[in-house]
Amino acid sequence: MNMNKIIIHGERPLTGKITVSGAKNSIVALMPASILADEPVVLEGVPDILDVHALINILQIMGAKIHFAKGVLTIDPRGVKSIPMPSGKINSLRASYYFMGALLGKFGKAVVGLPGGCNLGPRPIDLHIKGFEALGADVFGDEDVMRLRTKATGLVASRVFMDMVSVGATINIMLAAVKAKGTTVIENAAREPEIIDVATLLNNMGAKVYGVGTNEIRIDGVNELHGTRHFIIPDRIEAGTYLAIAAAVGKGVTVNNVLYEHLESYISKLEEMGVQMTIREDSITVHPGRDLKMVNVKTYPYPGFATDLQQPITPLLLKAYGRGELIDTIYERRIGHISELKRMGANIKIAGNRIVMASSNELVGTEVVASDLRAGASLIVAGLMAKGVTTIHNVEFILRGYDRIIEKLTNLGADIALVDTNSISMEKVKIEERG
Ligand code: UD1
Which of 93, 145, 184, 207 could bridge 157 with an S-S bond, Cβ 3.0-4.6 Å? Predict the structure, then answer.
């Protein structure tokens, strides 16, 4: 059993600057995308998170040479082979499914274990499969492994209509289509900034991807992709988490490396609540709080309010005056934080597909469990607000996606510590990779 935990002594006033790292949801796609190149790819601004280390491990097993130090990750894909990647190797993170598109695009075949990652209820991959099949691949799935293979003609471009807006399926189809013969069109494509980031990398490798950021993406297939350098966009979810913390317990906190245009819907919600901010080109200062007003939140695909920020903003909402509702239209079962917040004294309940909140008395620290990545982030926000000591278990979820979160929050004056009784420290993993 894993014994790592995060211990927070709450109610400390936070001040100073905190810098956002490269986007988790970009890097988990950029790394598989890099194997499409015939030469080394250098990724800069790479966050030091467990998902990155898991992907490094998978890439090394496939035959890639990796160097990772100080946020710069070099992937030399020249030795990569399309070896079967069963679920045991891959099920720790959901984004491993990008190897389906990347291996199919590169080799015309792939055997990839079905994805793990955060448990947010059913997370089907039917749209990914529909896309691969439209490009001419045969896809066979059994319990936990997908087998994909192209016919003798290789991948052939096609028109793919997404029944639902899906980040993962849009990226996966893009990865497979960049080397397909002809012009692929993805309709009803997702528009998240991370999709633009992946397309920018692919285009810098010599791909011809047009229209990303709109709901129709066109891809002219090319024969070869070359090496390149790419700087990853800032993590808008990490930024949103720190903005929530700054609004909840800040006495003047500046969040650096934030792109306002990636967070417009979120920031307008904070403004609606009465959070006072100064917004600059790549930083936002949150001023010490006045009384906050409760608001309703409904999540939507980008540019709507991100489902990934629903959980981190919940404790802040509990601080606001009045009653409010939160509806997650993307993941209805994204509610793992609710029971834990309740145990901390929150006035919150689930009613059908709605999370109903009313201003809480002070939250009180206790033992809580992170059920997934963003639920974990939510508990960190709550722990920093709460009276007394909050102990968070299952913290691997948090370390999957938040780069050096303990260090960053400590620098702001938080009393937060990672107690690593299991000694599976990331340091050890890092030394092995560099060595
Ligand atoms: C990505 C993000 C995740 C975020 C989510 C929604 C990564 C690594 N993860 O996940 O942090 O919460 O977008 O913004 O980038 N769906 C189907 N069939 C499919 C695929 C998806 O029905 O084949 C449904 C899902 O169940 C969900 C909705 O479509 O209700 C959106 O999911 P999707 O955008 O695909 O999420 P992910 O790419 O898995």
Answer: 184
